[in-house]
Amino acid sequence: GQRPALRFYDSSAGSPTSLVQKAAADGASLVIGPLQKQAVDQLASASALPIAVLPLHQASSTRTAPANFFQLALSPEDEAASVAKAAWDEGHRTALMLYPEGNWGNRLSRAFRQEWKALGGKMAATQSYDPAAGDFSGTVSNLSESASGADFVFLVATAKLARQIWPQIRHKIGTDVPVF
Question: The whole model's pTM is what?
């Protein structure tokens, strides 16, 4: 029933640690932010924080952060690993993977492969595609040639690209193979 009072602090106006201390002195009980990875890393390496901090990014370091430091990050790599776990939990064991060329596609395909391998899964084939291409039939056709034994497809794509590629996957690979 009661809304909390919100205060906004300009993150360019000082170090992240000093801004958290200022917010605490101003009566705050929680800091939400920062977004920039460098600032998140600085807070994660602090010896202590006076109030709870929830940055909206993940710290680079794996060392133990202060007790009041909580992380919320929607990392694409975490999503790819989650897809691998979900497919494994559904009983799938052999994957096909279709991902876009470029840094984003490489990061997600690498994260999926690492998690899939750790779970004991097999890769029947992987295929990258040019996201700027208007026709993906050749790419999907190449992937389908190695589809024997695969029991699902991991498709890395934006919503727009997925809508373009989906019918071609269904046509070349079939409707009985689930697509994650």
Answer: 0.66
